[in-house]
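Exercise: predict the structure of this protein bound to fe (ii) ion.
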Amino acid sequence: MAASFSPGYRGLPQMAGLCTLADAQRSDWSVDESVRRQKHLHYLLRRAYEIFTFRITGEPIYELKMAFSYHGYLCAEQVGAVRKRVGEMREPPLGLDQVPHPGLKHFCDEILAAPSSETLVFGLYEHLIPAIEDISGNLIRDAHPLADSPTVRVARLILSDLAEIQEYGHEALKCLVTDDQRREFEPWAKCLQQCLSAVGGPDGTQLSTGELPAAMFLATPFQFQSEPQRDERFQDPFNAGVNPEAFLYDERFSPRDKTLMMYYKRIRELDVPEMMASILYDLNHEEPWGFHEEMSRQLWDEARHAMMGEVGFASLGLDWTEIPINFTWSRNLNSQLNARERHGVLYFIEQGLMPKTGKRYEWEVGLESGDSLSALFQDFDWADEVLHSQIGRRWYVPRFSSLNEALDYGDDCWSKVMSHWRDDRDQGRTEHRNWWPDLYRQACAGWGVDPDPAALAYDETYEDTRADLKDISMSG
Ligand SMILES: [Fe+2]
Ligand SMILES: [Fe+2]
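Solution:
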């Protein structure tokens, strides 16, 4: 929305272009009202971040997992912007942890408890995000354009991020929610509207009806689904029959062949968001906001890494749904370790990626391979991992007396995790089929080269090693 100007000296816009001189003479605004509305905005954005994030692990549809990772991150960034602005408005203590109105809580709790992908998408993109857009749009309209210009700017940036979220959301609604379902959801839509009417609209600027609706989906409160769910395109997810790290560090194999394994490694990172979401859920009230803001960025990076793998497969004309995308790392960590221990494992693994043999090596392999896409992805993957290592130094390491102690803790926690490799096979969850030769042959056909016999014969599993190639044969 462009500001309208009033001409000053030589026709130049006055008021730095914020508004006209007449608009700037409005006097119906105050720090109190600005802060009050921003608290509503903050609450809904934070809850949106939570809902997107807490539903990643249990959401089976891959595309939605990726979108939730992104949208959760965007909301987290905007939570940070609102917190900063409220902090500038002589408000300490900020009181940002309080619920501004029970109707807002009821509204968000209902959406968090949505029992299916379809209801969740409907609740998020048809109700929650529009409510946040409402508050932001009203703020831009009502806040004093000169005196409260920093708030107006924050609201504009929020609207810009939300527009991108909603572009996706509208598409998702079209794809997933049929007209029949929409009719079915009607009573729930009324319930959600009633919550907001009780508040007097999302920002409480209208007359409040007072009355909260009865719980609907909330009657079965949300429980975090720690077992990762995947849609039907994912086959044989317990399969740990191919060890990509051992291939990557084996000097017998060519950089070109290794790019294929690196694309697999990237797409398999899908289980990092599935695991990180559980940390953010468990520590939701135990860690300050800064922790969540940075960790949600990291979670989104990991989702992007998975999509880079998907893109790599597409670039080679390969179908990733033909091979198993293993999920036992996130599954085992979520079920066997507590949140602090899981964070320790994450940090330990990411530290291991820093030395010469880690992310730099993967980038060099990409460069040498002649696959410029692989080189590009590894270039940014490396940069992201350096950031993650810094995030760990800010939010994980300070809990220990030294860096080494922090690392040892993560290593110990990882060693404690039972991989269940043999159980998974013996109890029929997977045969640990070696899927590599078929995939490799297809890639070679695409490259127009004959398979390297040694690479074709590659047959190392995760039975006795973990991803950092540490021997786990003794620890199960
Ligand atoms: Fe990653
Ligand atoms: Fe990472």
